[in-house]
Amino acid sequence: MLLFSIIASAVAPGLALLTYFYLKDRYDQEPLHMVIKVFLLGFLIVLPVMILQRGMILWLGENPIVESLLVSSGVEEFLKWFVLYHIMFNHMEFDEPYDGILYATAISLGFATAENLLYAWYSQAAFGPMMIRALLPVSGHAMFGVIMGYYMGKAKFMKSKRSRRFLAYSLLLPWFWHGLYDIILNTMTHNWLWFMVPLMVLLWYGGMGKISRANNRSPFRFINREEEIITHNK
């Protein structure tokens, strides 16, 4: 019973957020098996991330700023971006801007869920700490995924020289926000909540705007509207 409770408390936040982002796709929902596949890829990259992070700590030493910007956010966001770009960027199912957000949040939430399971298993965490992790690390990874996917979607569907710039943004901006998030946690022992709450509010506010803008640029928006008009006139 305890094992089931640990697993449920670790997995539930990631699956709940993944369901939320899946349902936010207004015009052309993605095949569920593709979303699950990308989620599992995020789950699996935890192992290479842990190996790389351990090696970098041994090489660079333990410095909270370096650990926040390079070891933690740098390695995690780069590997998520690398896998997402090579698996999904040119995939036929990536056919509207919002798909970038959905697949990026899927890989991010898969990674966050695996982290959650490891944390819950090794610390035997109670309900309270797991709720905090649902509100902060899991939610944070989701928002970093929204930023990554939004700019990757812009890079894919913008037919100009600026597409490369947006592809760079899709890596650098999540890296920046993740690094800032980790710096707050790693360098502030008492007042971190006063900085973390505004940061999460800002990320969620910006993320909701990006979701709306990505959906509004969907080519299926106008197709669906024409079909509704034709159906209405029959």
How many beta-strand runs?
0
Q: DSSP helix count? A: 9
- Please state the overall shape, judged from the principal axes of the Cα atoms: globular
Helix fraction? over 70%
The portion of residues forming beta strands comes to under 5%
Low confidence ranges: 226-233
Rg over CA atoms, rounded to whole Å, is 19 Å
Class by alpha and beta content? mainly alpha
* Structural domain tally: 1
Give the helices and strands as they follow along the chain. HHHHHHHHH
Mean pLDDT: 87
Distance between the termini: 57 Å
Biggest pleated sheet: none
Please give a structural write-up.
- GO terms for molecular function: metallopeptidase activity.
- Keywords: Cell membrane, Hydrolase, Membrane, Metalloprotease, Protease, Transmembrane, Transmembrane helix.
- One of its GO terms (biological process) is proteolysis.
- By secondary structure, the protein is mainly α.
- Helices cover 85% and strands 0% of the residues.
- The protein contains 9 helices and no strands.
- Helix 2 (32-44) crosses helix 5 and helix 6 runs antiparallel to helix 7.
- Residues 226-233 have low confidence and may be disordered.
